[in-house]
Amino acid sequence: MAAGKQDSRQKMINMMYLVFIAMLALNISKEVLATLGILNEDIENSIESKSEKSKELYRVFAQNAENPSYALANQWAPVINDATNKYFDFVQSLKDTLLLDEFGKNKYKKNVVVKDGPNRNDTILITNFQTMDKSLDLDDMFFEGNNYDSLGLVYVDQFKNYSKLMKSVIDSIVAYENLLTVKRTPHDFSISNDLIARSFTFNDSVVNSEGTIQPYLDYNFKGFPKIASLSKLTKLQSDIRELELQMVEAFNTKILSDGSAVNINTSKSLLNAKSTYFVGERINDAKILIGRIASDFQPDSVSIKIDNRELRRGRDFTIEDGALNLNLVFSSGGEKKITGDLFFSDADGNLEPIPVEQTLVVNNRTDFFIEIPRMNILYRGLPNEIRVIDPEISQSNIRVTSSSANISPSGGSTFEVRPKDGFDKIVVNVGDKTNSRVKKSKTFRVKDLPVMESSIAYNNRFYTGSTGISKIGLQRGKVAGKVPSDFDYDLTIEVTSFTFSVGNLPPIQIKGDGLRDAFSAIESQSTGSVAFFTNVVSTAYFESKGRRVPIKNVRVGDFSIKIR
Question: What is the pTM of this model?
Answer without folding.
Answer: 0.44
